[in-house]
Specification:
Number of domains: 2
Strand content: under 5%
Distance between the termini: 39 Å
Order of helices and strands: HHHHHEEEEH
Low-confidence stretches: 146-153
Largest sheet: 2 strands, antiparallel
Shape: globular
């Protein structure tokens, strides 16, 4: 029987993120400094989590069912982008002391988390062999042990050379893991196919 270590680690990480989200929720309505401190703690853990998924786990995943697997990963990355887009709006709202849709954000994040917990991580545990899991766990540990190292990472789009943030970029199934693409270039390739 294959181990479930990916699920265990990532579900535990989700628990940490949910706790920080609750802390942020409790801070809503307090002074800006308290809210921003709680918001930034939540954001930092979420950024690390998404980075871990996209750069340590998704890269290593070679699905048994390529149609399903290669459709799932870009969809998850798009959800990550949507979550970050909402967080940008939320951050601006906090700074300007405006109302924001916290409940809508919380529901989106819960839906994303539940899908990963129930479908994605178990799929990785089932389809990855023990050596692949060992490599992923090693990468996860490197990321979480060296938080400060994330800021120095610079990635460029393989097609146009545009600088990408640490949580941006797509791997197109036609080109494999060697080509990291910005959204615009990824979409162009999709339109051609």
């Amino acid at each position: 029987m294959k181990s479930t270590i990916i699920s265990e680690i990532m579900v535990r990480d989700h628990g940490k993120i949910v706790k920080l989200l609750i802390d942020f929720e409790k801070s809503i309505g307090q002074n800006e400094q308290t809210m921003m401190k709680a918001f930034n703690a939540f954001l930092w853990e979420l950024e690390k989590h998404f980075f871990t998924e996209e750069k340590a786990i998704f890269i290593a995943y070679e699905p048994e069912d390529e149609n399903e697997g290669y459709a799932m990963i870009p969809e998850l990355i798009k959800e990550h982008e949507e979550i970050f887009d909402r967080l940008k709006v939320m951050k601006k709202s906090v700074k300007k002391k405006k109302v924001f849709d916290f409940q809508g954000f919380k529901e989106l994040l819960k839906k994303h988390k539940d899908f990963e917990d129930e479908k994605v991580y178990p799929k990785f545990d089932q389809e990855l062999d023990e050596e692949e899991k060992r490599i992923i766990i090693h990468r996860i540990n490197e990321i979480y042990l060296s938080d400060s190292g994330l800021s120095g990472i610079m990635v460029k789009c393989s097609e146009c050379g545009k600088r990408l943030g640490i949580l941006q970029g797509y791997y197109h199934h036609k080109f494999g893991k060697r080509w990291l693409l910005c959204k615009k270039c990824y979409d162009k390739i999709e339109e051609k196919n």
